Amino acid sequence: MRELCLHVLDIAANSVSAGADKISISIDENLVDDLLTIEVIDNGKGMSAETVKSIMDPFTTSRTERNVGLGIPLLKHAAELSNGWLSINSELGQGTHLAVQFQHSHIDRMPLGNVVDTFLTLLLGTPEINWVFSFKKNEKEFYFNDLEIKKELDGISLTEPDVIRFIRSFFTEGIQEVQNEKGD
Fold first, then answer.
1. Which end of the chain, N or C, is less packed with Cβ atoms under 10 Å?
2. Total H helices, total E strands in the chain
């Protein structure tokens, strides 16, 4: 995968497959400390310590359509190449917390990718999930909890064209405002 947002999509898809009905994704660009941290937290079925250890192996996957699972091992490798790390904390029946960190300025760090399209893909592709998104750069933050907008829509589908346009505009403006934050 060429962009970190593609990894986020893959991890979020795993959370959905694990039966999560609430998934929180946070991206934190801390230019002061030269760090980029991504976290995905879900309330899915969780994993045993043995399973957590095994998913670091590219030849382990729970998917039935193929025999390898490269997502987590590749992300871990990419983080380590960029002076970073990846951790997974999970407990059966309690969900999973995946965190990955990179040296922000490292020449080998993958580009972040399109945050807006990533968030929109997840939100609109699985509207039954409670999505919580946070994008932070230094002291500025864009925060979105879809329960707030679902309440305002009062039964109108997130996939209605006017609603999609509104959400895209809201995300685009919010993310751009945060991305324009200068780091010194």
1. C
2. 6, 6
